[in-house]
Amino acid sequence: MAEELRKIMFTVRKPPHGTIYVYEGLEVKLIMAAYDADISVVFMDDGVYALQQGQKTGDLGVKGFEATYGVLVDYEISKVFVDRKSMEDRGMTVDDLVVIGEDEDTEEDIKPSVVDAEEISQMMSEQHNILCF
Amino acid sequence: MAEELRKIMFTVRKPPHGTIYVYEGLEVKLIMAAYDADISVVFMDDGVYALQQGQKTGDLGVKGFEATYGVLVDYEISKVFVDRKSMEDRGMTVDDLVVIGEDEDTEEDIKPSVVDAEEISQMMSEQHNILCF
Amino acid sequence: MLHTVNKSPFQNTSLESCLRFVREGDVILLIEDGVVAATVGTSKADMVTEAMKKVDVYALDADVKARGLTRLLDGIKVTDYAGFVDLVDQHKVQSWL
Amino acid sequence: MLHTVNKSPFQNTSLESCLRFVREGDVILLIEDGVVAATVGTSKADMVTEAMKKVDVYALDADVKARGLTRLLDGIKVTDYAGFVDLVDQHKVQSWL
Amino acid sequence: MKLAVLIYEGPYNHEASDSAYNFIQAARKKGHEIEGIFFYHDGVYNVTKLMEPPQDDRHIAKRWSELGGEGIDIVVCIAAAKRRGIVDDVLVPNVRISGLGQLTMMAIKAEKLVVFGD
Amino acid sequence: MKLAVLIYEGPYNHEASDSAYNFIQAARKKGHEIEGIFFYHDGVYNVTKLMEPPQDDRHIAKRWSELGGEGIDIVVCIAAAKRRGIVDDVLVPNVRISGLGQLTMMAIKAEKLVVFGD
Fold this sequence. Notes:
The complex is a heterohexamer, with 2 copies of chain A, 2 copies of chain C and 2 copies of chain E.
Chain A: E1 7-12, H1 21-32, E2 38-43, H2 66-69, E3 80-83, H3 84-89, E4 101-102, E5 109-110, E6 113-115, H4 117-125, E7 129-132
Parallel strand pairs in A: 1-2, 1-7, 2-3, 3-6
Antiparallel strand pairs in A: 4-5
Chain C: E1 2-5, H1 14-21, E2 27-30, H2 45-51, E3 56-60, H3 61-66, E4 77-79, H4 81-90, E5 93-96
Parallel strand pairs in C: 1-2, 1-5, 2-3, 3-4
Chain E: E1 2-7, H1 16-29, E2 33-39, H2 60-69, E3 74-77, H3 78-84, E4 96-98, H4 100-109, E5 112-116
Parallel strand pairs in E: 1-2, 1-5, 2-3, 3-4
């Protein structure tokens, strides 16, 4: 089909672990990555905590899922963005963020891209549909 | 038994209708009223919306429960309090509040009592147990 | 864009977050517990009034009535489910759950 | 009194509400998503630091670790479920759900 | 327009299910096509035939089943359903359990997608 | 002390169920008595035997059932359960469906009551 790829955005605004929204949301992304769609993911508000490095859920007795973020790029989900102000409000910097994959050529770690609200608004307006978690 | 009555407080902080917490919480109060306990109910934060007069849930297609508040005093739940600041922040006044019963002697309407945070803190500290909805 | 907001601004910051991302010409629809943001005399009224300079703010009638709210801010547009459908028809949608 | 708070202060106002009702000698225990309030450099850090002048603020270790939080505010007491039980044993409890 | 609707919360507990239902009915009345309804997270509880609400209350599972009977595709996420105990045996008629691929197809094929949840 | 624990949210979906479980286990280890555990609102979904979480995940209903087997009174609110489709047939062993009177008795008899929910 010559039809253009559909743009689908995921907005992640809930914190991880307190509810299952973030985790089950991640499952949707991994499945959707196998289909022909132009996927982007935006972490904003408490959703930025999903990207915090070093999550250890053992004492809670629940499975963690931080490692899965490390393979997002392998799943060809490379358009991963973080809202700058959400990070700043929470005292987080890029150093806190998980690695989502490795650059094939340079072998350098890939991290989510920090962007401003205007850029996110612009991207939102270009989507076919938006799913929120 | 000569034992003193147990003091049980209900704090209602969620708004009605968006979730079932307030409604199912009301069911607990009505049941508990039939037992030997010294019950009080405090509406604070968005819980004050539960006491707003004139709720019409017909267009939502769900049962309302505002009328049940009108019989609280009949159920011998007469210690009903509202946090003053929560009401003020929401632009509500005593006029907005539902009637919870009628004075047996004077036949005057009884409304929840508007109280300050300090008074609520004091009451909380005197409880045997507190249930929140 | 149509932004739906379903939480009370007194309890939850989703309306505030939404307002950081709305743009001229966007529309906000308050539904469920979100409709309390449409009332007068509240601590959040200025925020909503300010937002209405930039975007249209709708409140879902069925939810407004269910909560017994009668005094709405000047400029709030009240709509029903049919109007909700029209708004979805006219805009891309982001649900600020 | 022991006040348990289980929501992020960036998303929900339950910690703020709780702070209106705490009294000298009370204790706040941050659990679940509530533990993010214990971290440094945030827009809510001043509020929590101020609160610690009046009351002890605990954060539940298992929830802190689950979220990968390492930089906690000075004065935050970290405790485990056993400590949670002790706090319940020592105080009357209000859960700020 | 072709509409897809996602429902994230359980019946009675959260208004999401009622909002979605009222929205869908209004859309159908206007002649819009429903590409599909997808239940995710606690939304999967919406379609258990074991629910028995008070007689004067709405029967949420029956409502969805009736929509399904009128030809609307109603899908329950299998992964979300399994961990929550929603299995084929307890489903009301006219709804089906399937994978997240179905949600993907709805998101791609529907012109508009609306999410109801907490 | 004598403890009562209320759980308002469903399994997996919300951390409340895990928090409550971890808290109860810590209390028992310290020798405290559990007066009862009461499931209300969506909490009633915690004890359906139909749930089938992934094999490497905790089985929440089984955990509660085991606690019940060790003599702890685990009560599911009948009104909340009925509208949500939790009936005797789907309960794990060692838990029982009963009325809000049970919650009342727990609130009165337990020295401390802790609520876990959303």
